[in-house]
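It would be a great kindness if you could assist me with a short task in structural biology. Thank you for your consideration; the sequence and its C-alpha coordinates are set out here.
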Amino acid sequence: MNILLGLSGVVICFFLFRDYKYRQMINSYRAHAFEAFTSHEEMKETLRIGLYNRFKREEGSDKEEDPLLFEHFVADVMASVRGGRTFVTKGSGDYGVDIEEQADRGLYLGQVKCYQDSVGYEPIAIIHSQMMKQGAVGGYVVTTSQFTPNAYAYAKGLNIDLINGNQLVELWLDYLEDKRESAQELQLVPQV
Protein backbone atom coordinates (compact mmCIF):
# COMPACT_ATOMS: atom_id res chain seq x y z
CA MET A 1 0.00 0.00 0.00
CA ASN A 2 2.82 2.41 0.89
CA ILE A 3 4.54 1.56 -2.36
CA LEU A 4 1.34 2.28 -4.26
CA LEU A 5 0.91 5.62 -2.49
CA GLY A 6 4.55 6.51 -3.10
CA LEU A 7 4.31 5.51 -6.74
CA SER A 8 1.12 7.53 -7.26
CA GLY A 9 2.82 10.51 -5.52
CA VAL A 10 5.73 10.24 -7.96
CA VAL A 11 3.32 10.07 -10.91
CA ILE A 12 1.39 13.11 -9.64
CA CYS A 13 4.64 15.06 -9.12
CA PHE A 14 5.75 14.08 -12.62
CA PHE A 15 2.52 15.42 -14.17
CA LEU A 16 2.62 18.57 -12.04
CA PHE A 17 6.24 19.20 -13.01
CA ARG A 18 5.45 18.52 -16.67
CA ASP A 19 2.44 20.88 -16.48
CA TYR A 20 4.64 23.53 -14.82
CA LYS A 21 7.30 23.20 -17.53
CA TYR A 22 4.60 23.34 -20.22
CA ARG A 23 3.16 26.54 -18.71
CA GLN A 24 6.66 28.04 -18.54
CA MET A 25 7.22 27.19 -22.20
CA ILE A 26 3.85 28.71 -23.22
CA ASN A 27 4.57 31.87 -21.22
CA SER A 28 7.99 32.11 -22.85
CA TYR A 29 6.43 31.76 -26.33
CA ARG A 30 3.87 34.45 -25.47
CA ALA A 31 6.59 36.82 -24.25
CA HIS A 32 8.64 36.29 -27.41
CA ALA A 33 5.58 36.72 -29.63
CA PHE A 34 4.65 39.96 -27.87
CA GLU A 35 8.23 41.21 -28.16
CA ALA A 36 8.31 40.39 -31.88
CA PHE A 37 4.93 42.05 -32.43
CA THR A 38 6.01 45.15 -30.52
CA SER A 39 9.28 45.47 -32.42
CA HIS A 40 7.41 44.93 -35.72
CA GLU A 41 4.95 47.71 -34.82
CA GLU A 42 7.86 49.98 -33.85
CA MET A 43 9.53 49.21 -37.20
CA LYS A 44 6.33 50.11 -39.07
CA GLU A 45 6.04 53.38 -37.14
CA THR A 46 9.66 54.21 -38.00
CA LEU A 47 8.98 53.49 -41.67
CA ARG A 48 5.80 55.62 -41.59
CA ILE A 49 7.71 58.58 -40.17
CA GLY A 50 10.44 57.98 -42.74
CA LEU A 51 7.92 58.10 -45.61
CA TYR A 52 6.54 61.37 -44.31
CA ASN A 53 10.00 62.91 -44.00
CA ARG A 54 11.06 61.64 -47.41
CA PHE A 55 8.07 63.00 -49.31
CA LYS A 56 6.94 66.05 -47.33
CA ARG A 57 6.96 69.42 -49.03
CA GLU A 58 9.53 71.78 -47.63
CA GLU A 59 9.01 75.41 -48.50
CA GLY A 60 12.06 77.08 -50.04
CA SER A 61 13.95 73.82 -50.37
CA ASP A 62 15.61 72.37 -53.44
CA LYS A 63 14.77 68.92 -52.13
CA GLU A 64 13.94 66.55 -54.98
CA GLU A 65 11.40 64.43 -53.09
CA ASP A 66 8.03 66.12 -53.01
CA PRO A 67 4.33 65.28 -52.99
CA LEU A 68 4.32 64.48 -56.74
CA LEU A 69 6.92 61.80 -56.13
CA PHE A 70 4.75 60.57 -53.25
CA GLU A 71 1.86 60.22 -55.70
CA HIS A 72 4.05 58.06 -57.97
CA PHE A 73 5.25 56.02 -54.98
CA VAL A 74 1.66 55.33 -53.84
CA ALA A 75 0.54 54.58 -57.42
CA ASP A 76 3.28 51.94 -57.78
CA VAL A 77 2.38 50.35 -54.45
CA MET A 78 -1.35 50.34 -55.22
CA ALA A 79 -0.85 48.85 -58.69
CA SER A 80 1.27 46.07 -57.25
CA VAL A 81 -0.93 45.07 -54.35
CA ARG A 82 -4.32 45.69 -56.00
CA GLY A 83 -3.44 44.40 -59.44
CA GLY A 84 -4.70 47.35 -61.49
CA ARG A 85 -2.96 49.80 -63.79
CA THR A 86 -2.36 53.22 -62.27
CA PHE A 87 -1.88 56.64 -63.80
CA VAL A 88 -0.73 59.70 -61.85
CA THR A 89 -2.64 62.78 -62.97
CA LYS A 90 -0.93 66.06 -63.83
CA GLY A 91 -0.04 68.35 -60.98
CA SER A 92 -2.77 70.91 -61.60
CA GLY A 93 -6.24 70.81 -63.07
CA ASP A 94 -6.85 67.28 -61.79
CA TYR A 95 -9.80 68.38 -59.60
CA GLY A 96 -8.36 66.63 -56.57
CA VAL A 97 -7.68 63.25 -58.18
CA ASP A 98 -4.05 62.23 -57.85
CA ILE A 99 -4.28 58.64 -59.10
CA GLU A 100 -6.56 56.92 -61.59
CA GLU A 101 -6.55 53.15 -61.36
CA GLN A 102 -8.04 50.83 -63.96
CA ALA A 103 -8.92 47.52 -62.38
CA ASP A 104 -10.98 44.53 -63.50
CA ARG A 105 -14.04 45.96 -61.75
CA GLY A 106 -13.63 49.44 -63.24
CA LEU A 107 -12.16 52.85 -62.47
CA TYR A 108 -10.88 53.77 -58.99
CA LEU A 109 -9.82 57.28 -58.06
CA GLY A 110 -7.25 58.11 -55.41
CA GLN A 111 -5.91 61.05 -53.52
CA VAL A 112 -2.73 61.07 -51.43
CA LYS A 113 -1.84 63.28 -48.48
CA CYS A 114 1.71 63.46 -47.16
CA TYR A 115 0.70 64.91 -43.81
CA GLN A 116 1.88 64.70 -40.26
CA ASP A 117 -1.48 65.83 -38.86
CA SER A 118 -4.72 63.86 -39.13
CA VAL A 119 -6.67 64.06 -42.38
CA GLY A 120 -10.28 65.26 -42.24
CA TYR A 121 -13.28 64.52 -44.44
CA GLU A 122 -12.46 67.04 -47.20
CA PRO A 123 -10.35 64.79 -49.48
CA ILE A 124 -12.99 62.07 -49.14
CA ALA A 125 -15.67 64.52 -50.28
CA ILE A 126 -13.55 65.48 -53.29
CA ILE A 127 -12.91 61.87 -54.29
CA HIS A 128 -16.59 61.00 -53.86
CA SER A 129 -17.61 63.94 -56.04
CA GLN A 130 -15.16 62.89 -58.74
CA MET A 131 -16.32 59.26 -58.49
CA MET A 132 -19.86 60.43 -59.26
CA LYS A 133 -18.75 62.67 -62.14
CA GLN A 134 -16.47 60.07 -63.73
CA GLY A 135 -18.54 56.97 -63.02
CA ALA A 136 -15.84 55.37 -60.88
CA VAL A 137 -16.68 52.23 -58.93
CA GLY A 138 -14.52 53.13 -55.94
CA GLY A 139 -11.83 55.29 -54.52
CA TYR A 140 -9.20 55.68 -51.85
CA VAL A 141 -7.45 58.34 -49.83
CA VAL A 142 -3.93 57.50 -48.66
CA THR A 143 -2.01 59.41 -46.00
CA THR A 144 1.24 59.14 -44.09
CA SER A 145 -0.69 60.08 -40.94
CA GLN A 146 -4.15 59.15 -39.60
CA PHE A 147 -7.75 60.04 -40.33
CA THR A 148 -10.08 61.92 -38.01
CA PRO A 149 -13.20 60.20 -36.67
CA ASN A 150 -15.24 62.56 -38.90
CA ALA A 151 -13.31 61.28 -41.93
CA TYR A 152 -14.20 57.67 -41.11
CA ALA A 153 -17.82 58.60 -40.51
CA TYR A 154 -18.01 60.52 -43.79
CA ALA A 155 -16.44 57.69 -45.82
CA LYS A 156 -18.80 55.05 -44.44
CA GLY A 157 -20.84 53.52 -47.26
CA LEU A 158 -19.12 55.51 -50.06
CA ASN A 159 -16.84 52.68 -51.29
CA ILE A 160 -13.78 54.79 -50.49
CA ASP A 161 -10.90 53.08 -48.70
CA LEU A 162 -9.05 55.14 -46.11
CA ILE A 163 -5.44 53.99 -45.91
CA ASN A 164 -3.52 55.47 -42.99
CA GLY A 165 0.24 55.62 -42.58
CA ASN A 166 0.58 52.25 -40.86
CA GLN A 167 -1.57 50.54 -43.49
CA LEU A 168 0.50 52.22 -46.22
CA VAL A 169 3.66 50.77 -44.67
CA GLU A 170 2.05 47.31 -44.65
CA LEU A 171 1.09 47.68 -48.32
CA TRP A 172 4.62 48.88 -49.10
CA LEU A 173 6.12 45.85 -47.35
CA ASP A 174 3.80 43.60 -49.40
CA TYR A 175 4.92 45.47 -52.53
CA LEU A 176 8.58 44.92 -51.64
CA GLU A 177 7.91 41.23 -50.97
CA ASP A 178 6.24 40.89 -54.39
CA LYS A 179 9.26 42.53 -56.03
CA ARG A 180 11.64 40.21 -54.16
CA GLU A 181 9.66 37.15 -55.22
CA SER A 182 9.60 38.35 -58.84
CA ALA A 183 13.36 38.86 -58.78
CA GLN A 184 13.85 35.34 -57.39
CA GLU A 185 11.62 33.88 -60.11
CA LEU A 186 13.69 35.65 -62.77
CA GLN A 187 16.86 34.18 -61.28
CA LEU A 188 15.36 30.68 -61.49
CA VAL A 189 14.49 30.97 -65.19
CA PRO A 190 17.15 29.13 -67.23
CA GLN A 191 19.20 31.41 -69.47
CA VAL A 192 18.92 30.65 -73.19
Strands lie at 85-88, 99-103, 106-113, 138-143, 160-163.
